[in-house]
Amino acid sequence: THLDVQACALVGAYEFVRMNQVIIAYHVVATGDVQLSPELVDYRLYDLHELKCWPAGTGYALADWLRTRGHEPVFFTAEENAERRRGLDQPPKD
Questions:
Q1: DSSP single-letter state for residue 36
Q2: What's the per-residue H, E or C state across 37-91?
Q3: pLDDT (tens digit, 9 = 90+) per residue, 41-81?
Q4: Is residue 26, in this structure, part of any structural domain at all?
Q5: Is residue 16 part of a domain?
Q6: Domain for residue 93, yes or no?
Q7: How many other CB atoms are found less than 10 A from the CB of residue 14?
């Protein structure tokens, strides 16, 4: 990504049972320009108040990080989360 880390802090470790993974999340302050690569095909910038968390692995990490920034996290409702996930379990279309 061509970024240089200036500071790094552990947010926490989170289970992601569905994928049999443990997610270790960090808050990293970095300088430089983001460069896309095969591992990073897109990125977006959001204001903190625009973020919504989901009830799984990285969603809990995001919620904990938001709290460190003084924002109480808002989670997707069950219906919103089902809609957000729709199609994610399908194989990619050719």
A1: -
A2: ECCECCCCCCCHHHCCECCCHHHHHHHHHHHHCCCCCCECCHHHHHHHHCCCCCC
A3: 999 999 999 999 998 889 999 999 999 999 999 999 988 88
A4: yes
A5: yes
A6: no
A7: 19
Q: Tally the domains of the chain.
A: 1
| Domain coverage including residue 21 | 3-85
Of residues 52 and 1, more confidence is placed in: 52
Name the helix (H) or strand (E) containing 1: none
Residue 91 lies in a domain: no
CA distance 54 to 88: 14
Q: Contact at 8 Å (CB) between 69 and 48?
A: yes
Identify residue 57 by its one-letter amino acid code. G
CB atoms inside a 10 Å sphere around CB 53 = 19
Which has more pLDDT, 94 or 67? 67
Three-class SS state of 14: strand
- pTM of this prediction exceeds 0.85: no
